[in-house]
């Protein structure tokens, strides 16, 4: 992630972003990458601080191609193992103590947030007001 100051003293941060390719359809992938690039560069707070982010590339990859994409799955597994009353680690090579220690480290991280409750997963659960505009009315 190269950082260079321009003639105005702004810090220019160049980024290459890799996202999970579970988005179906080439048109959807291209639209997502273009939206990500446009929205990611529009950062008024950072810009006011003299930091300009520029996305050089937005790539979609599988977990096999980019192993860091597995990180959320590992974190979810640690949380499930640490919070479950069942013996979720019975057939695992990870001990309950190791899962508990990893969970404690996660809780101390400034960017970690744990929540429970309903998590919307469908488009119309996330954007209910757009259901009326759908070509094929979803339930």
Q: What is the CA–CA distance across the termini?
A: 44 Å
As a percent range, the share of helical residues equals 25-40%
Number of helices: 5
Question: What sort of overall outline do the alpha carbons produce when their principal axes are compared?
Answer: extended
Tally of domains: 2
- Which structural class best describes the helix and strand composition? alpha+beta
Largest sheet: 3 strands, mixed
Number of strands: 3
The oligomerization state is single chain
Strand fraction equals 15-25%
Poorly predicted regions are: none
Radius of gyration: 20 Å
Mean pLDDT: 80
Order of helices and strands: EEHHEHHH
> For the largest beta sheet, what order do the strands appear in spatially?
1-2-3
Give keywords.
single chain; 139 residues; alpha+beta; 3-stranded mixed β-sheet; 3 strands; 37% helix; extended
